Amino acid sequence: MRHGVAVLACLVVVGSLPLSVAGASVNASISNVEVSPSSPAPGETITFDTTVRNLESSDAPLEINDIAIRKSGGRGVTEYERVSNLGSISPGSTLEVPLTASFDSSGSKDLRVIVYGRDRGTGENVELRYPVKLNVQDRHPQVDITANDSVAGVESTGEVTVANGLDTQITNVEVVVEGEGVEMTQSRTVRSSVAQNGSVTAPFRFRPESAGEHPLTATISYTVDGDTTRNTTRTTVIESDPLRNSVELDTSAVGSGTDRALRVAVSNGANAPLSDVMISATSENASFQRVLLENISASTTRQVRLNATMDEPRADVTVTANYELGTEAEQTTTETTLRSVPGTIDLTGLDVIRQGGRLQISGSASNVGSTDADSVLVSVVDTETVTPATPNRDYFVGTVPASDFVSFDVYARTEGNVTSVPLEVTYLVDDTRKRQTFDVDLDRMGGSAQQPEQDGDSEGGDQNSMLPVFVAGGLALLVVVGVLVRRYRRGDDDIEV
């Protein structure tokens, strides 16, 4: 990994040492050497603007043959630049000459600007010297690259942070990110300036073309001191995972009656977001609405409701999710069955009371469905050990609305060791006759009905002695009527309406 390194170079000493070696008629000096940029970096061109002054006290012009910039001290002569044939400077005038140099390495640089001239009055040579000391540092703003986890074929994000630790602000800051084996979908950010000790963040977006390692390089271009442009780079390596597609659909029925719907849970087990997710359902016996979801993040679940219009009580349904994963169009399906919930009768709150030789069975015909149940009839089933009894061998409940109940009472006689009494319930739902049988456990028996007390009066006793005769006659009449009614009802039961 290569790191871009900030660069700072500071002018440490610019001495004003007017050295004059002149004849009697010339008084001249190097009055100033201005260094630009003031913070040079290795490899950067540095300009030394040299001002040569011929003082008014001079009696003759100073002819400038050469001006050079050299390394001060050490073995041999290291000269960085020399300019020649610059003309003459009259007394009281100045000459400004730019010299340039660059240094490949950082560190302290001891330099000297030398002017080679001739006194026009005496013809003698004149040499002027001016020392310059620079401290060149390999220093740039600090640069850091961060990138989120990435997946092959899926756009991801990152950012470059530029922190300006230089002793001056930087301007015209441009950040460009490039990568190998990645498609950059957003790569360039420009900022007008970054203050000293300030920072700026540059976002970028990229899409790895394949799984594996990919280098990302950020190049930062900026300007210091108004006109000096510098560049620095920083590289990091990202690891991209292979794309994994794992999407599951889970369905459940909701609603009631014909107002039914499917609740669909879409679980994204992939390692990338799903986009443009379309949830739909098809069936021969029902139609469904469709729902569009913009995206589903990785490792999350979203639920939608698909309202249904059912043509029949049962519908076999195929649920489909179409979505984009990375750059690929994918599809996941599941099968389910949707049923309407018709009226259904259940017997609840059952209670059994013995009354002499018969049993009174009471309870509620409860509609546990979501549509009405019509023509509800509760009857005692005639078996070898159970016989329907008066006054209610069966009980016509009528209509039981959805999620409602109607009470009933029926009677039965038993013979032998009987543990339960069968009851039959018939009713109509959506013009279809339903028939169910329930066994009423005699353990539900709640007690026995009170018998009338005997009166001790003899007249009352005589009247009571006649009571069995009347009772027997009445019972005989009820038996005859009951048989006729039972036959009549059985004849109706054989007719389906």
UniProtKB/TrEMBL annotation:
Residues 439-464 are annotated as: Disordered. One of its GO terms (molecular function) is protein-glutamine gamma-glutamyltransferase activity. The chain crosses the membrane at residues 466-485. The keyword Transmembrane applies. The keyword Ligase does not apply. It comes from the Archaea. Keywords: Membrane, Transmembrane, Transmembrane helix. PANTHER family: CONSERVED WITHIN P. AEROPHILUM, S-LAYER DOMAIN-LIKE PROTEIN-RELATED. This is CARDB domain-containing protein.
